[in-house]
Design a protein that fits this description.
226 residues, six-stranded mixed sheet, four-stranded antiparallel sheet, globular
């Protein structure tokens, strides 16, 4: 069974994009997709749709054979928690400290409250060099550190697949490569990843498939080699 399937999917345009006409898309374990779009807004549209952040004009979204119901955002919450979405649009929903925000993840999955981060989350914070800022609120943290904290939140969900949109655009050179190290470990597990063209060299290096979006058409190229 495929991890997810989009069938006869139609997406209305956002920003300066043209939108995407009826298309089929299947994501399986081990897939590493590079999204190449003529217009950046169309790439962003597709990636946000994968993360269930965009309601289609037509078509169905199936997650492991379960059809998603977009009529109420609450129906999508169990699926959003199984997807990591990393982009300039990712945010914390609370103005509490970074630690409080990050603690929401283990609290949800373990159905219990805790005052300390699980070891893997804390290790990622150390790797990204933000552990000394966990006691601060989002408004008190520099933009790069805040985005790194959001990446910790997303990857700590132990997602079934990862969507990365423009990672290189909002991280400096050094921190970008720290995140790449973490993503490389995810690749070794066979977890599917979908990258935007904005992530350039990294995405092209690891891709085994490519999505091309042009003139409202989406096509898939399989079995690519670096």
């Amino acid at each position: 069974m495929a991890l997810l399937e989009l069938n006869h999917y139609v997406l209305a345009p956002i920003g300066s994009g043209k939108g995407i006409g009826a298309f089929q898309f299947v994501l399986n374990e081990g897939d590493i997709y590079f999204v190449n779009a003529g217009m950046a807004d169309d790439a962003n549209l597709f990636l946000r749709a994968l993360a269930t952040l965009i309601r289609p004009e037509r078509g169905t979204y199936e997650f492991k054979g379960e059809r998603l119901d977009f009529s109420d955002y609450r129906n999508l919450l169990p699926y959003k928690r199984r997807i990591a979405y990393v982009s300039p649009y990712s945010r914390f929903i609370s103005n509490r400290t970074l630690l409080d925000n990050l603690l929401l993840i283990p609290s949800y999955f373990e159905n219990a409250t805790s005052q300390t981060l699980p070891a893997p989350m804390m290790e990622m914070c150390r790797q990204f060099q933000i552990e000394d800022q966990l006691c601060l609120r989002p408004a008190q943290v520099d933009p790069e550190s805040l985005r790194l904290a959001v990446i910790v939140r997303e990857l700590s969900k132990e997602p079934e697949f990862i969507v990365v949109d423009g990672l290189r655009d909002f991280l400096g050179y050094r921190k970008f490569h720290l995140v790449v190290e973490v993503l490389q470990k995810a690749l070794q597990t066979g977890r599917p990843l979908v990258f935007s063209a904005a992530d350039g060299e990294f995405a092209k290096k690891y891709r085994n498939k490519e999505i091309v979006i042009a003139d409202r058409m989406l096509t898939v190229k399989d079995n690519l080699h670096s």
